Amino acid sequence: MIGETTQSITSELKDNDVNLRKIIHIDMDAFFASVEQRDFPKLQGKPVIVGGQPDSRGVVAACSYEARKFGIHSAMPSSQAYRLCPNAVFVKPRFEAYRQASAIIRKIFYSFTDLVEPPSLDEAYLDVSHCSILNGSATLIAQDVKTKIQQQTGLTASAGISYNKFLAKIASDINKPNGFYLITPEQGEAFIENFPIRKFHGIGKATETKMAKLGIFNGKELKQSSLQCLKENFGKAGLHYYLIARGIDPRPVKTNRPNKSIGIETTFEQDIFGKEVILKLLQQLLAKVLEKTKQKRLCPRTLTIKIKYHNFEQITRSRTLATPIGLGEAADHLLEELVDSTAVSQRKVRLLGITLSSLEKHTQFHQLDLFDSVS
Q1: Is 192:223 a contact under the CB 8 Å cutoff?
Q2: Peptide bond preceding 177: is omega within 30 degrees of 0, i.e. cis?
């Protein structure tokens, strides 16, 4: 039964028009750092790190390719980055400059197609399946996009082209920086077989470790795993892994990407301690995140707090409510309840974060308190 089901799934998808799509993934090269090197020519050719200063509790937000040669990467503590490369130039992020550059780049995308999905400031998927520009050639369109980006922003981008989002994303990373790579429908399945699991987009270290225990180290070994095995070990994601191992990814380019969550976090210069201090800081973070949801006309129902202790151990605590979350006494009680389930009264803390999720769109926005009655 399972064999028949999986065979019908793959056959239906392979016969579907999804395999006739032309998807381009554009990924800006070291975007934040490249903007800094463009705007401040003295930084060109130097290892540039955008983020916290080396004597702070901050982390690396982005780094230039010169810095990456030293093993530096995003999310690394700035102090560790400094130890790896004492000659690196540390600069504070200028998000307004990055947003301005991103806005120019997105205008270029939309000059080719309305089917644009930008997951972040520095990347986007373009569906050019029905684009008539340049005779509808995805290769020529991608090359023209890259050229226009460099002409209008002075920045370089890498492009990946394939018949689905998964393969296009992988392709854009192959020849960085200023790269270009095409994976055709005829090449897709064989390409995946030889691709290492650690390079699969969407598979993090925890999943990679779990797959290694199952003897899965590349696409071929993933393809040899049954759908039942993958579902038992990876839940709903099991079907996705089963399909991509066969070069199948039916996900469309979403032009209006919904907000799954909105959050904020802060790392402290000195470790903090004490329940009252932490509660007050969390209340301040909650107010900032709620303002963001209000601007987007979203009502959240799930509140998550994130705490990183002095030894870098990280925990989260969440609660989902029947009614939208707002400021007030009830929110304070909820935060206290979540904090009481942690060890902040006994351990020092270096980072706090708040995330709101289970977001619902409202045309007439009214943010209720936690325990307001709903008629």
Answers
A1: yes
A2: yes
d(Cα 209, Cα 169) in Å, to the nearest integer? Answer: 22
CATH 3.30.70.270 maps onto the chain at 26-159
Q: In the CATH hierarchy, which top-level class contains the domain 26-159?
A: alpha beta
E-assigned strand segments in the chain: 23-28, 48-51, 60-63, 89-91, 116-120, 123-127, 157-162, 180-182, 261-272, 298-299, 302-309, 314-320, 349-357, 360-361
pTM summary value: 0.74
Q: Is the pLDDT of residue 283 over 70?
A: yes
Token couple for 92:
């504070």
CA distance 18 to 14: 8
- Select from 3.50.50.60, 3.40.50.620, 1.10.150.170, 3.30.1490.100 the CATH code of 261-361: 3.30.1490.100
What SS3 class is residue 262? strand
Mean pLDDT of the chain: 89
Positions marked catalytic: 123
Q: C-alpha dihedral over 257, 115, 107, 66, to 10 degrees?
A: 70
Q: How far apart are CA 279 and CA 273, in angstroms?
A: 11
26-38 tens-digit pLDDT: 999 999 999 999 9
Give the residue range(s) of CATH 3.30.1490.100 domains in the chain.
261-361
User: Tokens for 162?
Assistant: 């394939």
C-alpha angle 261-267-272 in degrees, rounded to nearest 5: 120
DSSP string, 291-330: HHHHHTTEE--EEEEEEEETTS-EEEEEEE-SS---SSHH
